[in-house]
Amino acid sequence: MTMDLAPGHDEETRLAALAVLAQQVRELMDAVVLTEADEDEVTSVTAELVALTERLNDARRERPLMPEFAPDGTFRHLGNAVTGACNPHALPLVIEHTPEGSQADLEFRPTHEGPPNSVHGGVSAMILDHLLGHAVATSGRAGMTGTLTIRYRQPVPYGRPVVGTAATTRAEGRKTWADGTISLPDGTPLVEATGLFITPSLWVEAASD
Ligand SMILES: CCCCCCCCCC(=O)SCCNC(=O)CCNC(=O)[C@H](O)C(C)(C)COP(=O)(O)OP(=O)(O)OC[C@H]1O[C@@H](n2cnc3c(N)ncnc32)[C@H](O)[C@@H]1OP(=O)(O)O
């Protein structure tokens, strides 16, 4: 089912409300991984969540929100798993375009736990994949990740600020390479990444049609 809005409904207001819902679901997910509630309480909460899930599914889209330009002209992808304000899976990452490349202040959550008390390596890799891809895209050479190499130097904490950065390093034909890091605010590197991004032949063919 598609989400047809009632006439006069302000879509931006609805999306803002959806972003608040997504944030509440992030809080809910942390509550789930941290709760010590007893079995009856857990079962009771689950029943309420089943009902809430059904209410949302009464007006279900076929797919998450697509990339688009917001009314103020900024690019956004509200359904994205890394940056989407309307996707509870996303932190969401807010990426700044800097003279060097891309940067984001971020704070992981208890739901990102991998090894006890630190962030799962796959989650760090996902964030770096996106940051590198953003740096490549904003250099004007958008592409898909071909390879991503990660070096885990120190465990990444959750519940405290860390910084993600990325920048392109070289380009050759449809290939662009980028490096990035997740670091402590004092610059101590925790995770380093190098990626190869390839502008798909399909995109090049579509652009020349
Ligand atoms: C502002 C917005 C910011 C958005 C940021 C988003 C960041 C998120 C990025 C992602 O996570 S993307 C999702 C993960 N990646 C994928 O799903 C990619 C899946 N693979 C493909 O779609 C295609 O294989 C690919 C586009 C990578 C390449 O297809 P092509 O048909 O364009 O490649 P082609 O076969 O013509 O090969 C071109 C060159 O690339 C090389 N190549 C292809 N795939 C490769 C690969 N995977 N790794 C390394 N090299 C590769 C290939 O050998 C060749 O090298 P040479 O020119 O030197 O001969």
UniProtKB/TrEMBL annotation:
Thioesterase domain residues: 118-175
Enzyme class: hydrolase
Localization terms from the record: Cell projection, Ruffle membrane; Cytoplasm; Membrane
Membrane topology term: Peripheral membrane protein
Keyword entries, A-Z: Apoptosis, Cell membrane, Cell projection, Cytoplasm, Fatty acid metabolism, Hydrolase, Lipid metabolism, Membrane, Transit peptide
Domain of life: Bacteria
Enzyme Commission number: 3.1.2.2
Single GO molecular function: hydrolase activity
Signal peptide range: none
InterPro entries tied to this protein: HotDog_dom_sf, THEM4/THEM5_acyl-CoA_thioest, Thioestr_dom
Main location: membrane
Similarity comment: family membership: Belongs to the THEM4/THEM5 thioesterase family.
PANTHER family linked: ACYL-COENZYME A THIOESTERASE THEM4
Name under which the protein is recorded: Acyl-coenzyme A thioesterase THEM4
Organism: Microtetraspora glauca
